[in-house]
Design brief:
Arc Repressor Mutant, subunit A; 61% helix; mainly alpha; 185 residues
Length: 185
Amino acid sequence: MIKFAVIRRYFIHYIMAKYNITEKKEKEAAYRSLVNPHLMDDLKERILKIILFQKKYKDKNYSAKKLAADLGTNTRYISAVVNVRFHMNYTSLVNKYRIEEAMSILADHRYKDLNMEDISDMVGFSNRQSFYASFYRINGCTPRSYKLQRLSMEPAPPAQPKKRGRKPGSKNKKKTQEVREATAL
């Protein structure tokens, strides 16, 4: 009998190969320590304002170069701040917010009829494969399995209540009933 751990290990290897996921390698860059900590804190707040609050993560073409231009700095500073303050690279930071948005869409009954390509497009991914790879890297499951799990856990929202009052043409219902009774006699 095959143990569950062996099957799980095979499945994880299969998914990682299928979605072209590689393990993260940690490396140290000298320029990270050269940036003033106060400047890093300031840039961190400004990066969050642009990426998160202005929802630039949804823009497929918004690069670190464009962010640097918007902030009046260079990409090395952006890279250093994102690496030191967020503990990831620029692409991972942007994809993190995209995946968070996708998770809320996938769990929402209003969007249950959207396919994965529509959702990946809504949150800023340029293709379905990169969406699946990022989603799996962050959550350990595919977007489809996440959607099925979340939608089965939560009850569907109640249907719209029926409108009260008379139905069209119901005014004459009593008269129609009286006419039928009179003709039946």
